[in-house]
Write a structure and sequence with these properties.
Blueprint lengths: L24 E3 L1 H4 L12 E14 L5 E11 L4 E3 L1 H9 L10 H20 L4 E5 L5 E2 L7 E2 H4 L24 E13 L6 E12 L5 H9 L8 H16 L3 E8 L5 E8 L14 E2 L6
Parallel strand pairs: 6-12, 7-8
Antiparallel strand pairs: 1-4, 2-3, 2-11, 3-5, 8-9, 9-10, 10-11
């Protein structure tokens, strides 16, 4: 059994009490090597942003507290957290009691989670909790052109559904582009269950892809079996290899599964989506989330 399959694809019982031992760290290098990405010389910086919508615990008086967790950790560390292990871990808080008041309980639990996942991933992890009164910030991607709306969609022909970077074609002009698509679909690396989402990228350089070829390339991910973070890094590397852009940022906003969504961001521009990557801000979900 691989590290990645510790929980994924297997029937697992939810812990009845707080249990950090269920957490599993997966080495990022397991996927990066096949694309020529070295941990010692990453072509990008970035973060992984997670939103956990099914978070709850009890106060000392037995009253349930619910909230929406946001977790952020860097892409340059050696590990990612396996998603089902995080789900099991967060659910292990459900019936345990923390704090005499709601506020004290949240403060205590958030610090426990921050400490546990930071130790697991061997890096600093940011954690915050939002309640139903939290104001959502505008999406960072409101100004991006959605490719399905800008091309002759009904006459687009797609024939390849396994990742193929040869589909990417160069345009005849250079500029800065800000594109998005809601057609992202890939599959879980272990269970092969479909993962849905939206992809946004911002790119500046002398060579740029055509909109039609880029959309065909994203469609070609439809039968790929990778974790969300791996898909984001693969797209970033393919665009870098093909076009050598001056600046490139790729963001994947995946639809929540098991109450958790995963939003990896990779950039060469050292400019991250402002609201998505701000631990103090509850960013507005995208159409597919």
């Amino acid at each position: 059994m691989t590290i990645e399959a510790t929980h994924l694809g297997k029937q697992s019982s939810y812990p009845q009490h707080y249990d950090p031992t269920v957490l599993v760290a997966v080495p990022r290098i397991l996927n990066r090597e096949q694309y020529g990405i070295s941990n010692e010389a990453l072509p990008f910086t970035g973060v992984d942003v997670w939103h956990a919508y099914e978070f709850s615990f009890l106060t000392r008086k037995g009253v349930p507290v619910v909230g929406l967790l946001k977790l952020i950790y860097p892409a340059n560390n050696e590990f990612l957290v396996e998603s089902k292990s995080l789900k099991l871990y967060l659910n292990s808080f459900n019936m345990d009691r923390f704090g005499e008041t709601r506020a004290l309980g949240i403060s205590s639990v958030v610090e426990i989670i921050r400490k546990d996942i930071s130790e697991l991933l061997e890096c600093d992890v940011l954690v915050s909790c939002f309640d139903h009164n939290a104001q959502q910030a505008d999406s960072d991607f409101n100004t991006f052109s959605i490719l399905e709306e800008t091309i002759d969609f009904d006459n687009l022909i797609c024939t390849q559904f396994t990742e193929n970077p040869e589909l990417l074609e160069s345009s005849n002009h250079s500029e800065k582009i800000k594109w998005g698509t809601h057609l992202l679909r890939s599959n879980c690396k272990i269970t092969h269950q479909p993962d849905w989402g939206s992809l946004f990228f911002e790119m500046k350089g002398e060579k740029l892809p055509t909109s039609e070829s880029f959309l065909k390339y994203i469609v070609s991910l439809r039968n790929e079996n990778h974790f969300h973070e791996e898909i984001c890094e693969m797209v970033f590397k393919r665009l870098t290899d093909k076009f050598q852009p001056e600046e490139l940022t790729v963001t994947c906003l995946y639809t929540r599964r098991g109450g958790i969504d995963i939003c990896p961001v990779r950039t060469s521009a050292k400019k991250l989506p402002e609201n998505l990557t701000n631990i103090k801000v509850l960013d507005k979900p995208s159409f597919r989330q």
